[in-house]
Write a structure and sequence with these properties.
By secondary structure, the chain is an alpha/beta fold. The two termini are about 30 Å apart. The structure holds adenosine-5'-diphosphate and magnesium ion.
Length: about 250
Amino acid sequence: MTSILQVKNVNKSFGGLKALNNVELSVEQGTVHAIIGPNGAGKSTLLNCFVGRLTPDTGTVDFDGTSLLGKQPHEINQVGVSRVFQTPEIFGDLSLVENVMIPTLARRDGAFKLNPWQRVDSIAEVREKAEHLLADVDLQDKKDMIANSLSRGDKRRLELAMCLVQDPKLLLLDEPTAGMSRADTNKTIDLLKRIGERGITKIVIEHDMHVVFSLANKISVMAQGTVIAEGKPEQIKGDPRVQEAYLGGAHL
Ligand code: ADP
Ligand code: MG
Protein backbone atom coordinates (compact mmCIF):
# COMPACT_ATOMS: atom_id res chain seq x y z
CA MET A 1 0.00 0.00 0.00
CA THR A 2 1.27 3.46 -0.92
CA SER A 3 0.77 6.28 1.50
CA ILE A 4 -0.58 9.40 -0.25
CA LEU A 5 -0.64 11.67 2.81
CA GLN A 6 1.86 11.56 5.62
CA VAL A 7 1.53 13.68 8.72
CA LYS A 8 4.36 13.65 11.23
CA ASN A 9 4.75 15.28 14.61
CA VAL A 10 2.22 18.05 13.96
CA ASN A 11 1.64 20.49 16.79
CA LYS A 12 -0.60 23.55 16.81
CA SER A 13 -1.44 25.86 19.69
CA PHE A 14 -3.94 28.69 19.88
CA GLY A 15 -2.60 30.88 22.67
CA GLY A 16 -2.35 28.54 25.65
CA LEU A 17 -4.54 25.87 24.09
CA LYS A 18 -2.80 22.91 22.50
CA ALA A 19 -5.24 22.05 19.71
CA LEU A 20 -2.90 19.50 18.06
CA ASN A 21 -0.38 17.50 20.04
CA ASN A 22 2.15 15.39 18.08
CA VAL A 23 -0.33 14.21 15.48
CA GLU A 24 0.85 11.30 13.30
CA LEU A 25 -1.25 10.06 10.41
CA SER A 26 -0.69 8.03 7.29
CA VAL A 27 -3.40 7.77 4.66
CA GLU A 28 -3.17 5.05 2.05
CA GLN A 29 -3.94 5.73 -1.58
CA GLY A 30 -7.46 4.88 -2.72
CA THR A 31 -8.86 4.34 0.77
CA VAL A 32 -11.53 6.09 2.81
CA HIS A 33 -9.86 7.16 6.03
CA ALA A 34 -12.16 8.47 8.73
CA ILE A 35 -11.09 10.78 11.53
CA ILE A 36 -13.47 10.65 14.45
CA GLY A 37 -13.42 12.03 17.96
CA PRO A 38 -15.41 14.16 20.35
CA ASN A 39 -16.06 17.86 19.81
CA GLY A 40 -12.94 19.95 20.23
CA ALA A 41 -10.61 17.00 19.58
CA GLY A 42 -8.77 18.95 16.86
CA LYS A 43 -10.21 17.30 13.75
CA SER A 44 -11.04 20.50 11.86
CA THR A 45 -7.78 22.11 12.98
CA LEU A 46 -5.88 19.17 11.49
CA LEU A 47 -7.81 19.41 8.24
CA ASN A 48 -7.09 23.14 8.10
CA CYS A 49 -3.37 22.28 8.22
CA PHE A 50 -3.82 20.15 5.09
CA VAL A 51 -5.42 22.90 3.02
CA GLY A 52 -3.20 25.87 3.89
CA ARG A 53 -5.69 27.61 6.17
CA LEU A 54 -3.46 27.00 9.17
CA THR A 55 0.28 26.37 9.49
CA PRO A 56 1.35 23.89 12.16
CA ASP A 57 3.83 25.13 14.77
CA THR A 58 5.97 22.04 14.12
CA GLY A 59 5.81 18.91 12.02
CA THR A 60 5.42 17.90 8.39
CA VAL A 61 2.50 17.26 6.04
CA ASP A 62 3.50 15.52 2.82
CA PHE A 63 1.11 14.77 0.00
CA ASP A 64 2.09 12.62 -2.95
CA GLY A 65 5.77 13.39 -2.45
CA THR A 66 5.51 17.15 -1.82
CA SER A 67 5.18 19.19 1.34
CA LEU A 68 1.88 21.03 1.72
CA LEU A 69 3.28 23.36 4.35
CA GLY A 70 3.78 26.95 3.30
CA LYS A 71 1.62 26.49 0.22
CA GLN A 72 -1.36 28.76 -0.45
CA PRO A 73 -4.83 27.14 -0.48
CA HIS A 74 -5.09 27.47 -4.28
CA GLU A 75 -1.65 25.86 -4.73
CA ILE A 76 -2.73 22.92 -2.57
CA ASN A 77 -5.84 22.68 -4.68
CA GLN A 78 -3.69 22.57 -7.81
CA VAL A 79 -1.65 19.61 -6.55
CA GLY A 80 -4.91 17.66 -6.25
CA VAL A 81 -6.33 18.23 -2.77
CA SER A 82 -9.96 19.34 -2.61
CA ARG A 83 -12.07 20.05 0.44
CA VAL A 84 -15.78 19.96 1.15
CA PHE A 85 -16.34 22.48 3.90
CA GLN A 86 -18.37 22.06 7.07
CA THR A 87 -20.67 24.81 5.80
CA PRO A 88 -21.20 24.68 2.06
CA GLU A 89 -19.29 27.34 0.15
CA ILE A 90 -21.29 27.86 -2.98
CA PHE A 91 -22.33 30.81 -5.13
CA GLY A 92 -25.91 31.28 -3.97
CA ASP A 93 -27.09 33.58 -6.77
CA LEU A 94 -25.81 31.37 -9.57
CA SER A 95 -27.39 28.28 -11.08
CA LEU A 96 -26.16 24.84 -10.13
CA VAL A 97 -24.54 24.29 -13.49
CA GLU A 98 -22.74 27.66 -13.26
CA ASN A 99 -21.50 26.75 -9.78
CA VAL A 100 -19.96 23.53 -11.08
CA MET A 101 -18.43 25.33 -14.10
CA ILE A 102 -16.61 27.88 -11.94
CA PRO A 103 -13.80 25.69 -10.55
CA THR A 104 -12.82 24.56 -14.05
CA LEU A 105 -12.96 28.07 -15.49
CA ALA A 106 -11.07 29.54 -12.54
CA ARG A 107 -8.40 26.87 -12.81
CA ARG A 108 -8.03 27.32 -16.53
CA ASP A 109 -7.97 31.10 -16.56
CA GLY A 110 -6.64 31.95 -13.10
CA ALA A 111 -8.87 33.01 -10.24
CA PHE A 112 -11.98 34.35 -11.93
CA LYS A 113 -10.14 36.13 -14.74
CA LEU A 114 -12.42 34.64 -17.34
CA ASN A 115 -10.97 35.00 -20.79
CA PRO A 116 -13.45 36.75 -23.10
CA TRP A 117 -11.68 35.39 -26.21
CA GLN A 118 -11.95 31.73 -25.36
CA ARG A 119 -13.44 29.46 -27.93
CA VAL A 120 -17.15 28.92 -27.51
CA ASP A 121 -16.86 25.17 -27.84
CA SER A 122 -14.52 24.95 -24.86
CA ILE A 123 -17.14 26.65 -22.69
CA ALA A 124 -19.61 24.09 -24.03
CA GLU A 125 -17.23 21.33 -22.92
CA VAL A 126 -16.96 22.82 -19.46
CA ARG A 127 -20.75 23.00 -19.27
CA GLU A 128 -21.12 19.44 -20.44
CA LYS A 129 -18.69 18.19 -17.81
CA ALA A 130 -20.56 20.19 -15.15
CA GLU A 131 -23.85 18.64 -16.20
CA HIS A 132 -22.33 15.15 -16.01
CA LEU A 133 -21.12 15.80 -12.49
CA LEU A 134 -24.54 17.13 -11.46
CA ALA A 135 -26.06 13.90 -12.77
CA ASP A 136 -23.51 11.94 -10.70
CA VAL A 137 -24.71 13.66 -7.53
CA ASP A 138 -28.40 13.31 -8.49
CA LEU A 139 -28.96 17.00 -9.12
CA GLN A 140 -29.52 16.93 -12.87
CA ASP A 141 -33.20 17.89 -12.52
CA LYS A 142 -32.25 21.02 -10.61
CA LYS A 143 -29.33 22.16 -12.74
CA ASP A 144 -30.88 25.50 -13.75
CA MET A 145 -32.16 26.39 -10.29
CA ILE A 146 -30.45 29.05 -8.19
CA ALA A 147 -28.12 27.41 -5.66
CA ASN A 148 -29.62 29.31 -2.70
CA SER A 149 -32.97 27.62 -3.24
CA LEU A 150 -31.55 24.15 -2.53
CA SER A 151 -32.05 22.15 0.66
CA ARG A 152 -29.06 21.70 2.92
CA GLY A 153 -28.43 18.17 1.68
CA ASP A 154 -28.60 19.28 -1.94
CA LYS A 155 -26.19 22.17 -1.25
CA ARG A 156 -23.65 19.70 0.11
CA ARG A 157 -24.06 17.50 -2.95
CA LEU A 158 -23.58 20.56 -5.14
CA GLU A 159 -20.38 21.37 -3.28
CA LEU A 160 -19.23 17.82 -3.76
CA ALA A 161 -19.80 18.16 -7.51
CA MET A 162 -17.75 21.39 -7.43
CA CYS A 163 -14.90 19.41 -5.86
CA LEU A 164 -15.19 16.39 -8.14
CA VAL A 165 -15.10 18.52 -11.29
CA GLN A 166 -11.51 19.34 -10.36
CA ASP A 167 -10.52 15.65 -10.52
CA PRO A 168 -8.87 15.68 -7.09
CA LYS A 169 -6.50 12.95 -5.93
CA LEU A 170 -7.46 13.55 -2.32
CA LEU A 171 -10.89 14.69 -1.17
CA LEU A 172 -11.30 16.05 2.35
CA LEU A 173 -14.79 15.93 3.78
CA ASP A 174 -15.53 17.70 7.06
CA GLU A 175 -18.77 16.26 8.46
CA PRO A 176 -20.38 15.68 5.06
CA THR A 177 -23.72 14.70 6.59
CA ALA A 178 -23.92 17.29 9.38
CA GLY A 179 -27.46 18.58 9.81
CA MET A 180 -28.92 16.17 7.28
CA SER A 181 -31.99 14.01 7.74
CA ARG A 182 -31.43 10.23 7.88
CA ALA A 183 -32.75 9.91 4.32
CA ASP A 184 -30.36 12.59 3.06
CA THR A 185 -27.52 11.02 5.05
CA ASN A 186 -28.13 7.62 3.43
CA LYS A 187 -28.27 9.26 0.01
CA THR A 188 -24.92 10.92 0.70
CA ILE A 189 -23.37 7.63 1.89
CA ASP A 190 -24.49 5.96 -1.35
CA LEU A 191 -23.07 8.84 -3.32
CA LEU A 192 -19.72 8.71 -1.52
CA LYS A 193 -19.57 4.97 -2.12
CA ARG A 194 -20.26 5.50 -5.80
CA ILE A 195 -17.57 8.14 -6.19
CA GLY A 196 -15.27 5.77 -4.29
CA GLU A 197 -15.21 3.75 -7.47
CA ARG A 198 -13.16 6.49 -9.12
CA GLY A 199 -10.26 5.67 -6.83
CA ILE A 200 -10.11 9.09 -5.19
CA THR A 201 -8.60 8.89 -1.70
CA LYS A 202 -10.92 10.36 0.90
CA ILE A 203 -10.47 11.67 4.41
CA VAL A 204 -13.81 11.94 6.17
CA ILE A 205 -14.31 13.72 9.46
CA GLU A 206 -17.56 12.53 10.89
CA HIS A 207 -19.60 12.45 14.07
CA ASP A 208 -22.21 10.06 12.76
CA MET A 209 -20.96 6.51 13.47
CA HIS A 210 -23.42 5.06 10.98
CA VAL A 211 -21.65 7.06 8.25
CA VAL A 212 -18.17 6.16 9.50
CA PHE A 213 -18.78 2.44 9.73
CA SER A 214 -20.54 2.39 6.34
CA LEU A 215 -17.68 4.08 4.52
CA ALA A 216 -14.31 3.87 6.20
CA ASN A 217 -11.52 1.39 5.46
CA LYS A 218 -9.51 2.80 8.32
CA ILE A 219 -10.34 5.00 11.31
CA SER A 220 -8.15 7.32 13.36
CA VAL A 221 -9.63 8.42 16.66
CA MET A 222 -8.63 11.82 18.00
CA ALA A 223 -9.08 13.15 21.50
CA GLN A 224 -7.53 16.25 23.03
CA GLY A 225 -5.47 17.03 19.99
CA THR A 226 -3.87 13.66 19.49
CA VAL A 227 -4.54 10.33 17.75
CA ILE A 228 -5.45 7.89 20.54
CA ALA A 229 -6.34 4.85 18.42
CA GLU A 230 -6.17 3.73 14.82
CA GLY A 231 -7.40 0.67 12.95
CA LYS A 232 -10.08 -1.01 10.88
CA PRO A 233 -13.72 -0.23 11.82
CA GLU A 234 -14.11 -3.60 13.64
CA GLN A 235 -11.03 -2.90 15.74
CA ILE A 236 -12.13 0.63 16.61
CA LYS A 237 -15.66 -0.40 17.55
CA GLY A 238 -14.40 -2.58 20.40
CA ASP A 239 -11.53 -0.38 21.56
CA PRO A 240 -12.09 0.66 25.20
CA ARG A 241 -9.97 3.83 24.77
CA VAL A 242 -12.33 4.94 22.04
CA GLN A 243 -15.42 4.25 24.10
CA GLU A 244 -13.90 6.17 26.97
CA ALA A 245 -13.13 9.14 24.73
CA TYR A 246 -16.77 9.16 23.74
CA LEU A 247 -17.90 9.25 27.40
CA GLY A 248 -18.97 5.75 28.14
CA GLY A 249 -19.48 4.66 24.58
CA ALA A 250 -22.72 6.56 24.06
CA HIS A 251 -21.86 7.22 20.43
CA LEU A 252 -20.66 3.72 19.60
P1 ADP B 1 -13.10 19.42 16.24
O1 ADP B 1 -13.18 19.74 14.80
O2 ADP B 1 -12.50 18.10 16.54
O3 ADP B 1 -14.42 19.60 16.93
P2 ADP B 1 -11.43 21.79 16.37
O4 ADP B 1 -10.26 21.44 15.54
O5 ADP B 1 -12.46 22.67 15.74
O6 ADP B 1 -12.12 20.48 16.95
O7 ADP B 1 -10.95 22.50 17.69
C1 ADP B 1 -9.92 21.99 18.53
C2 ADP B 1 -9.68 22.97 19.65
O8 ADP B 1 -9.04 24.14 19.15
C3 ADP B 1 -10.97 23.44 20.34
O9 ADP B 1 -10.71 23.59 21.71
C4 ADP B 1 -11.23 24.77 19.67
O10 ADP B 1 -11.96 25.61 20.53
C5 ADP B 1 -9.83 25.30 19.40
N1 ADP B 1 -9.74 26.14 18.22
C6 ADP B 1 -10.00 25.76 16.96
N2 ADP B 1 -9.75 26.77 16.09
C7 ADP B 1 -9.34 27.81 16.84
C8 ADP B 1 -8.93 29.16 16.56
N3 ADP B 1 -8.89 29.61 15.28
N4 ADP B 1 -8.57 29.94 17.58
C9 ADP B 1 -8.60 29.50 18.86
N5 ADP B 1 -8.97 28.26 19.20
C10 ADP B 1 -9.33 27.41 18.22
MG1 MG C 1 -14.83 20.23 13.50
